[in-house]
Design the sequence.
């Protein structure tokens, strides 16, 4: 790996936040400056582009899929190990305010008769609608 | 979670510009290597690793090549 990007990562991933590089400092970095001036010292290999594609597909599909999975998991409410692991993952990774907001909106959409509960019928219906619209 | 800065682990503090910079570094690492800077089989171990802030370029970064 070239030293340029290595140095940038090393400056960014400093444990002590006081010693960590700021955005301004990174802008002054030689490697970044080189790129800003259009002098690229690296070429992206097909492998790197593939990595980015996977990341992009993952992140765009993730939020819609997770919303439905979460609803289904809430219904399961089993005490299985899998259930707890998934819930922990969701609560750490996805329960940011704006995500919670969209989750609530989706939930209300699914709850067609406004009972505040989601019977199996409504869940299946919204799952089918969601699947056909996203494909 | 994998992009969380060490000082955010265990502490209920709001993300700051410097925690964002850490995340940028971790994302850059992922994009250029296809690997995560920290790897663990469960989230508790992962958070421990991040807290230590101990990472390296050991996984050979295959993503980019010299021109």
Sequence:
């Amino acid at each position: 790996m070239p030293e340029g990007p290595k140095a940038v990562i090393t400056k960014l991933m400093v444990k002590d936040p006081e010693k960590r590089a700021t955005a301004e400092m990174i802008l002054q970095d030689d490697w970044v400056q080189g790129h800003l001036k259009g002098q690229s010292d690296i070429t992206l290999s097909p492998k790197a582009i593939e990595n980015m594609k996977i990341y992009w597909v993952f992140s765009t599909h993730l939020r819609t899929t997770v919303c439905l999975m979460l609803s289904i998991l809430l219904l399961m409410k089993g005490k299985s190990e899998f259930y707890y692991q998934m819930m922990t993952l969701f609560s750490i990774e996805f329960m940011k305010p704006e995500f919670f907001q969209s989750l609530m909106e989706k939930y209300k959409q699914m709850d067609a008769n406004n009972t505040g509960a989601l019977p199996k019928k409504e869940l299946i219906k919204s799952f089918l609608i969601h699947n056909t619209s996203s494909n | 979670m994998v992009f969380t800065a060490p000082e955010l682990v265990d502490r209920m503090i709001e993300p700051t510009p410097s925690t964002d910079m850490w995340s940028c570094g971790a994302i850059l690492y992922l994009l250029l290597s296809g690997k995560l800077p920290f790897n663990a089989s469960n989230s508790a171990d992962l958070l421990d690793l991040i807290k230590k802030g101990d990472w390296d370029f050991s996984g050979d970064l295959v993503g980019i090549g010299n021109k």
